[in-house]
């Protein structure tokens, strides 16, 4: 009986506490992608994964342009749903990859709060181009002949190979990761910072297949390696 009373009191305290939290702390309210992140930003990103319309509302609230892609239902586990062109303020090569809305939202926060600040801190220049190995590919994990589908199979992942700075320098994962200079420090900071926004981040040290790129995805499993 005492446990029941205790649980009721805790529930009442939670309800009262929620009334005094700022409205932005409710994961169901639109996430403003242009505002500084707070302790519930990652929770809101997870909400966007499960509720695509909330993701589109987040871009509308933030007044960020978004190009939607028509759904492409397939019967082999490689459907494209609620997809968009990657919303990036920098040039992407190849141009404008197709990704899920949730990944696009995470990218905006990553670019604004991790990528550019770390480039200025370590290299004294902004990133103007991101080189990638693609986002959508109808395949299994690690290109295996059998097994679970990759997050790439639904455009819920992107592989980043390197960055070009405003001053012309190019930083490639495969070349600079293991160094000791500012380029390596920048890549390590980008990798670690990406874990704040994406659910899965795999880098050079994960395995041989990832030595030349960073893998970012918004799948259900959280990993930062």
Entry summary:
The chain is an alpha+beta fold and about 220 residues long. The chain has helices at about 1-20, 40-50, 50-60, 100-125, 175, 180-195; strands spanning about 70, 85, 90-95, 100, 125-135, 155-165, 170, 200, 215, 225.
What share of the residues does DSSP label as strand, in percent?
15-25%
Taken in chain order, the helices and strands follow as HHHEEEEHEEEHHEEE
Global morphology: globular
Count of alpha and pi helical runs: 6
Structural class call reads: alpha+beta
Oligomer: single chain
> Distance between the terminal alpha carbons, to the nearest Å?
46 Å
Largest sheet, strands/sense/barrel: 7 strands, mixed
How many domains would you count in the coordinates? 1
Mean pLDDT: 87
User: Unreliable segments (pLDDT under 50, ≥5 consecutive)?
Assistant: 13-18
């Amino acid at each position: 009986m005492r446990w029941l009373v205790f649980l009721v009191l805790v529930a009442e305290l939670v309800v009262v506490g929620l009334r005094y939290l700022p409205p932005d702390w409710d994961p169901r309210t639109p996430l403003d992608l242009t505002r500084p992140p707070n302790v519930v930003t990652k929770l809101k990103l997870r909400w966007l994964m499960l509720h695509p319309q909330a993701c589109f509302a987040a871009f509308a609230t933030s007044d960020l342009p978004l190009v939607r892609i028509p759904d492409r239902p397939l019967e082999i586990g490689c459907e494209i749903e609620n997809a968009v062109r990657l919303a990036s303020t920098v040039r992407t090569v190849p141009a404008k990859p197709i990704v899920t809305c949730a990944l696009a939202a995470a990218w905006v926060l990553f670019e604004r709060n991790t990528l550019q600040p770390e480039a200025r801190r370590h290299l004294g220049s902004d990133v103007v181009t991101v080189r990638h190995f693609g986002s959508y590919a109808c395949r299994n994990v690690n290109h295996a002949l059998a097994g679970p589908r990759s997050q790439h199979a639904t455009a819920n992942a992107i592989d980043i190979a390197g960055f070009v700075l405003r001053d012309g320098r190019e930083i490639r994962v495969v070349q600079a990761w293991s160094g000791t200079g500012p380029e390596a420090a920048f890549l390590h900071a980008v990798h670690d910072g990406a874990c704040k926004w994406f659910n899965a981040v795999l880098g050079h040290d994960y395995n041989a297949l990832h030595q030349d790129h960073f893998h970012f995805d918004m799948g259900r499993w959280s990993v930062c390696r």
